[in-house]
Design goal:
Helix content: 40-55%
Radius of gyration: 40 Å
Strand content: 15-25%
Number of helices: 27
CATH class of the largest domain: Alpha Beta
CATH topology of the largest domain: TIM Barrel
CATH architecture of the largest domain: Alpha-Beta Barrel
C-alpha cells in the first residue's frame, strides 16, 4: 500500500464492526504485504503488539508460501487465526486481515459466517483505499499543474528581459535549483558551447565538477540514443548500467529539443542518496524548464543553422570588448558574405540556398577555435569573433577561411557549385566605441572587398575610424533633427539635496532624454557627441528651455508659493549665441514666474573656452535674478585662476573626485579644497555623483552644502515631479488650515 494512503484508512471503524459481528474475538490485525502489522486491536479495545506478537510470528511461520485468499490456522493457547488476503484491482497484494478467535467462539462453528464478515470488511477497506488513491492522484495532478503554471509564470519574463542567451539560461537553471530544491542542476548544450551547472548552497555536492563531466558525457550519449527523459532514483537500475552512468546519485533528466525536434542538449537534476526521490511531478516540471530553455535558445539563435543570431552575436561582441578593456587583450571580428547564394536560390530554389547556408556555417565552425564564436547575421552573411586574437593572427585565420571556402564545392542533387566569400576584418580594442561599431567596421571592410571583386579579404584600418564615426554621427543628426521637430525629447529632473535640511526648498537639475522606438529612453551620451560636432546644441538648449518653462507655466501657482529652483544646462555653443539672452527673457516673461526660479549651468571647460562671451552672458543672467552654477569644476588645469573671473553662484564639484573620495585620500582632499575655496568666495558647493551613504558621510564631514547623485535621488520626468510637488503642497495646505 502507499504509505500516505495506509495512514488514512479507517482501521479502527473496521475493527469495531468485526468485534460486534464475531464473538470471542481475541485480536484484530491489519498487516501490510510483508506481514508487518499496521494496526492491532485487542478485545479490550487497546492497541498493543505485546500480547499478539508471538502469535503473529507463529502465524507467519505456519502460513504456506503461497496461501489461499482465506485460511484458518490453530496457533495454540486455544486460539485460531483467520487469515484473509487484501488485494487491490489487478490482484495486487496490499496486505492481510487477521482475526484471532477463541476456539469456543460461536463464530467458528460456521466458517462461512466468519469468512463473510471478514470479506465484507476487506471489500470496504479496498474501496476506501481506491477512493483515497484516486483522490491523492487527482490532488497530485492538480498540485503538479499548479506548480507548472507557477513555474511558467516565474520564468516567462526571462524571454522579455534577458540580454543574451547565456544570462537567460543561467537564470533559468538557478530558478530550477531554487524552485525544485535539488542539490544540483546542469544544462548542457554542446553545439552552443554551453555547460551551465548551478548548485544548492544548503546541500553542497562533493566534487561537483566531476559529476558535471560524467553527466555531460555518459548521460548525453544515452539521451542522443534513447531520445527521452530519465527518472532514476536507484544507482543499480538497468537503464543506468546500460548507459554507463556510474554514480551514486538520484537523477532526473530531460532532452532539450529545438522547434524542429533536433536535440540541442539536456537538463539534469541531481540529488544525493539522503535527499528525496524524484517523482513524476518533478518530471513534468523539468519538461517545463526544458521547453523554456528551448524558447530562450530559439530567441537567440538562428533556427536554420543553430548559430547565434545577430542580436546574440552583437551582445557577445560587447562582452568581448568589455573583456578587452579589463585585460588589455585584443580580439578580431570577421564579416563573411557568401557570393553565390543568390545564384543558388534562383537556380535550384530556396531549399538548396538553405542547405548552402548550413554548409558554410558548419565549415566556419570547423575553421575556428572552440573558444571562438560564429553567428549568422542574416541571409548569406556570417560573423566570426576570434577571442584573444592579435590582428596578425586574425588576418591569417581570415585568409585561411577565405581560401578554404574558395576551393570548396557545394553539391545539390548531383549539381556542383563553386563558392567564394568576401571577408572584412576589424580588430576589437579597448578604445573601440562599442562591439556593434566593431562589427560595422568589419562590414565596411567587407564592402570594400566587394568593390575589388569576389573572393577578397580586406582589413579595416585605423585610418577609417574617423569615417566610421562620421557615418554614425550623421545617422544621429537626422534623428536629432526629427526629435526636435516631433518633440521626441523628454525633460527629466534630478534632485539636488541639501546636507543640512531646509524646509520647503526644492532644487533640481534639468536633464534630457530621447524617446526611441525599440530602444526605450536614451540618455544624452548616445547623441551628444553628434550634436556637438554638427552644432546642434543651440537648438537642443533652446528646446529644453522652452519645454521646461512650458511645464512650469502649467504649475505656476506651485512656483509662487514654494521655494523651487530648476537649473538648466547651457552648452559651450550656446554661450556664443547672441540671441539666447533675449530668447530666455521672453520665455521667462511669458511663464509668469520669478527669474530666480530658473538657474543655469555651464561647464568649466565650456566657460574657459569661451571666457569673454561666457562672462558677459553669465553677468547678464545674474543681473536678471538667475543663479549660475559652474559645472564639472576641478577638471581644468586653470580652475582656480578662472574662478575669480567668472561671476557664478554655485560650484558643482566634478564627480570624478566625488565618486572616489570614500576610499581615495587624494580625491577626498581635492573635494575639500574646492569646497573651501568656494566658501572663501561666498559660493555654495554641490557634489555630483553621490552614489552611496559612504560618499554622503564624507561630504557631510567636509560640510559641503549640497549633493546630487543616484544615492540621493534618481532622475525622473519633470512633469511627474511637478505633479507630486503640487499634490504634496496642497495636502500640506489642507493640514495647516485644519490645525487653524
Amino acid at each position: 500500500m502507499s504509505p500516505t494512503v495506509i495512514q488514512k484508512l479507517s482501521y479502527k471503524r473496521y475493527a469495531v464492526v468485526l468485534r460486534e459481528t464475531l464473538e470471542q474475538v481475541h485480536a484484530i490485525v491489519f498487516c501490510n504485504a510483508d506481514g508487518a502489522p499496521l494496526y492491532i486491536n485487542h478485545c479490550d479495545g487497546k492497541s498493543s503488539t505485546v500480547d499478539i506478537a508471538p502469535y503473529l510470528q507463529l502465524l507467519n511461520a505456519t502460513r504456506d508460501a503461497s496461501p489461499s485468499p482465506f485460511e484458518t490456522y490453530s496457533i495454540g493457547n486455544n486460539l485460531v487465526a483467520c487469515d484473509m488476503l487484501i488485494s487491490a484491482p489487478q490482484n495486487i497484494p496490499l496486505g492481510r486481515l487477521i482475526v484471532t478467535l477463541h476456539e469456543s467462539a460461536r463464530g467458528l462453528k460456521n466458517r462461512a459466517t466468519t469468512q463473510a464478515a471478514m470479506s465484507a470488511i476487506v471489500d470496504c477497506l479496498v474501496d476506501e483505499y481506491r477512493i483515497l488513491t484516486d483522490l491523492g492522484t487527482l490532488s497530485d495532478d492538480l498540485d503538479a499543474r499548479h506548480e507548472e503554471l507557477h513555474l511558467i509564470y516565474e520564468t516567462s519574463n526571462l524571454l522579455e528581459t534577458i540580454q543574451d542567451a547565456h544570462s537567460g539560461l543561467t537564470k533559468l537553471v538557478s530558478k530550477c535549483v531554487e524552485y525544485m530544491n535539488v542539490d544540483m542542476v546542469v544544462l548542457y548544450l554542446p553545439e552552443k558551447k554551453m555547460t551551465i551547472p548551478r548548485y544548492n548552497t544548503r546541500t553542497p555536492l562533493d566534487n561537483p565538477d566531476k559529476v558535471t563531466a560524467q553527466l555531460t558525457s555518459t548521460l548525453y550519449a544515452w539521451t542522443e540514443k534513447a531520445g527521452k527523459s530519465l527518472l532514476s532514483n536507484e544507482p543499480n537500475e538497468s537503464v543506468r548500467v546500460e548507459a554507463g552512468i556510474r554514480m551514486d546519485y538520484k537523477l532526473l533528466s530531460c532532452p532539450v529539443v529545438d522547434i524542429r525536434g533536433k536535440l540541442e542538449g539536456l537538463i539534469v537534476c541531481v540529488n544525493t542518496r539522503d535527499r528525496r526521490d524524484f517523482s513524476r511531478n518533478d518530471q513534468h516540471i523539468i519538461e517545463v524548464i526544458s521547453r523554456t530553455a528551448a524558447a530562450i535558445i530559439h530567441a537567440n539563435y538562428d533556427s536554420l543553422t543553430g548559430l547565434m543570431n545577430r542580436e546574440s552575436f552583437t551582445w557577445q561582441a560587447e562582452r568581448l570588448l568589455d573583456y578587452a578593456r579589463q585585460t588589455g587583450w585584443n580580439h578580431c571580428v570577421l564579416y563573411v558574405d557568401i557570393n553565390q547564394l543568390q545564384v543558388v536560390n534562383d537556380t535550384l530554389g530556396h531549399l538548396a540556398g538553405d542547405a548552402l547556408i548550413v554548409h558554410v556555417g558548419r565549415m566556419l565552425c570547423g575553421q575556428v577555435k572552440q573558444s571562438d564564436f560564429v553567428g549568422r547575421l542574416g541571409g548569406g552573411i556570417f560573423g566570426v569573433l576570434l577571442q584573444n586574437c592579435p590582428g596578425n593572427v586574425g588576418e591569417q585565420v581570415a585568409e585561411r577561411i577565405r581560401a578554404n571556402i574558395s576551393v570548396d564545392r557545394f553539391t545539390w542533387q548531383d549539381r556542383d557549385f563553386s563558392i567564394s566569400a568576401n571577408i572584412g576584418m576589424s580588430g576589437m580594442f579597448a578604445e573601440n566605441d562599442s562591439g556593434a561599431a566593431s562589427i560595422y567596421a568589419a562590414e565596411l571592410a567587407c564592402d570594400a572587398a566587394k568593390e575589388t571583386g569576389r573572393n577578397r579579404l580586406k582589413i579595416f584600418n585605423d585610418g577609417n575610424i574617423e569615417m566610421l564615426r562620421r557615418k554614425d554621427q550623421m545617422h544621429w543628426v537626422n534623428r536629432i533633427q526629427r526629435a526636435l521637430k516631433d518633440n521626441l525629447f523628454i525633460v527629466y529632473c534630478q534632485p539636488i539635496i541639501p546636507f543640512t535640511p531646509i524646509s520647503g526648498m526644492y532644487h533640481y537639475e534639468i536633464l534630457l532624454r530621447l524617446q526611441n522606438e525599440g530602444e526605450g529612453i536614451l540618455s544624452p551620451g548616445s547623441f551628444m557627441t553628434a550634436a556637438e560636432r554638427y552644432e546642434l546644441m543651440p537648438a537642443i538648449d533652446r528646446w529644453v528651455i522652452k519645454e521646461t518653462l512650458r511645464q512650469v507655466r502649467n504649475h505656476r501657482s506651485l512656483f509662487t508659493c514654494t521655494d523651487i529652483e530648476l537649473s538648466i544646462n547651457l552648452s559651450g555653443q550656446s554661450l556664443c549665441d547672441d540671441d539666447l539672452l533675449s530668447y530666455i527673457d521672453n520665455l521667462v516673461k511669458d511663464s509668469g514666474i520669478p527669474p530666480q526660479t530658473i538657474g543655469f549651468e555651464v561647464t568649466e571647460s565650456a566657460a574657459v573656452k569661451h571666457i569673454a562671451t561666457a562672462t558677459a552672458l553669465i553677468g547678464a543672467l545674474r543681473k536678471r535674478g538667475h543663479k549660475i552654477s559652474l559645472d564639472d569644476f576641478g577638471t581644468g588645469l586653470s580652475s582656480f585662476s578662472y574662478l575669480k573671473t567668472l561671476p557664478v553662484d554655485v560650484l558643482k564639484i566634478d564627480g570624478s573626485f566625488v565618486k572616489e573620495m570614500a576610499h581615495d585620500p587624494l580625491s577626498y582632499e581635492m573635494v575639500g579644497a574646492i569646497h573651501r575655496i568656494g566658501r572663501v568666495m561666498g559660493l555654495k558647493t554641490v557634489a555630483e555623483f553621490v552614489e552611496n551613504d559612504a560618499i554622503a558621510t564624507c561630504l557631510k564631514k567636509l560640510e559641503v552644502d549640497y549633493g546630487q547623485g543616484f544615492g540621493l535621488g534618481k532622475p525622473r520626468p519633470l512633469s511627474d515631479q511637478l505633479v507630486d510637488l503640487e499634490q504634496a503642497t496642497q495636502s500640506q495646505a489642507r493640514k495647516s488650515n485644519f490645525l487653524k
